[in-house]
Amino acid sequence: MTMLRVEKLIKKGPRLFSIVGFIFLLAAGGLTPAQGQDDVLKTETALVQLNVGVVDRTGQAITSLSRNDFIVYEDNVQRPIAYFEPTQAPFSLVMLLDMSGSTVNFRQQIIQAAMRFLDALAPDDRVSVISFNGKGVHQLIGFSTDRGRAAYAISLATGAGSTMLYDGLKYSLKELDREGKRRKAIVVLTDGIDTDVRKGDRIAVSNASEAEVSTVIKPEASPALVSVLNEADRQGVTVFPLALPSGDPKRLPLPDPLITAQYNAARARLQMLADRTGGQISDIRRLDEMSRLYAEVAANLRTLYSIAYQPGTQSRDGKWRTIRIEVPRADLIARTKPGYYAR
User: Fold this and answer.
1) How far apart are CA 280 and CA 67, in angstroms?
2) Residues 38 and 54 both lie in one domain
3) Number of H helices and number of E strands within the chain?
4) Are the beta carbons of 201 and 264 closer than 8 angstroms?
5) Residue 55 class from Cβ within 10 Å (0-12 exposed, 13-18 middle, 19+ buried)?
6) To the nearest 10°, the Cα dihedral for 16, 70, 233, 80?
7) Can you tell me the distance from the alpha carbon of 195 to that of 207, in angstroms, rounded to the nearest whole number?
């Protein structure tokens, strides 16, 4: 491939065809003149991106490791690390706020907790504030390091009506895609009861026998959830759900098996969002815990390394690929997402 052709490709797609991706492709064997831009984009976006936390046996975060301290395995085969960023590297993150009718009674606590979260971020972290309610998804501020503007945007968050959680997550991922190769995360405050997804759950339990009610809903099969997880996998986005008590199945006023099953499924999906992306779910048991939990998420972000590697095969066969991370010391434990579906 001539340098003139490389320059043309970069001009045609500067964001997707990154210099990092190009250097890695050359190192892996280069591109033939017959390959077009579609092939370039497919190869570059095939890098698997991970956010990795490392702790010792007491749970203390270890933040001083280097690229050479990590070994990545996919399906038990070691894979080369394409790039690495230390824990100090800045994040692009979305604060996603549930402004549906179920959160109306404690808006002030939500807004105060979200504002305190801003204070716990690093100066170079870029933040976008997005809310969702019955009227749709609303970006209150685009990505910025201006904490004053972000705080003002949070103060404007309002609304009522239905819960469009997965639309909010999809919109957040779309905005994060514009942030290029920066480290990425979504911190979503929600009860998890997505209105459209719940309609499908309600149909499933209404057609089930009494013995089947508790198991008939398959949370992992939700198309909305699968779509979000696939895109989060592609970009390497870590999701941190802060689960509001209004969505807790243990707090339902009436022990109706049909409703309990729907709430259990919704909470299970929040857990899957965290587990599959390498994040962590925080259950808010009392509203006065919100500020502390937001601060804990901010602290957690500051302990994550970012790693990208080339998978062993480019096959999009839909099969599960298991990921394992090793670090040199036996007393250290590395945590990241467990794998991904090659779609």
Assistant:
1) 24
2) no
3) 10, 14
4) no
5) middle
6) 50
7) 19
- DSSP lists the bridge partners of residue 132 as 98, 137
Instruction: State phi, psi for 186 to the nearest 5 degrees.
Output: -125, 125
Helix (H, G, I), strand (E, B) or coil at 75: coil
Number of domains in the chain: 3
Which whole-number Å values give the CA distances from 68 to 83, 141, 238, in the listed order? 11, 38, 23
What pLDDT digit, counting tens, does each position of 165-204 carry? 999 999 999 999 999 989 999 999 999 999 999 999 999 9
Q: In CATH, what number is assigned to the domain containing residue 128?
A: 3.40.50.410
Rounded Cα gap, residues 221 and 226, in angstroms: 7
Mark whether 111 and 173 lie in a shared domain: yes
Q: pLDDT tens for residues 212-231?
A: 999 999 999 999 999 999 99
**Domain shared by 103 and 242, yes or no:** yes
Same domain as 234, residue 122: yes
Structure tokens at 110: 């939500």
pTM: 0.84
Task: Count other C-beta atoms under 10 Å from residue 215's C-beta.
Answer: 9
- Answer yes or no: do 227 and 269 share one domain: yes
| Shared domain check, 230 and 110 | yes
Cβ distance 113 to 204 under 8 Å? no
- Token pair for residue 44? 């570059």
Q: Which candidate, 83, 85, 72, places its Cα nearest to that of 27? A: 83
Amino acid at 259: I
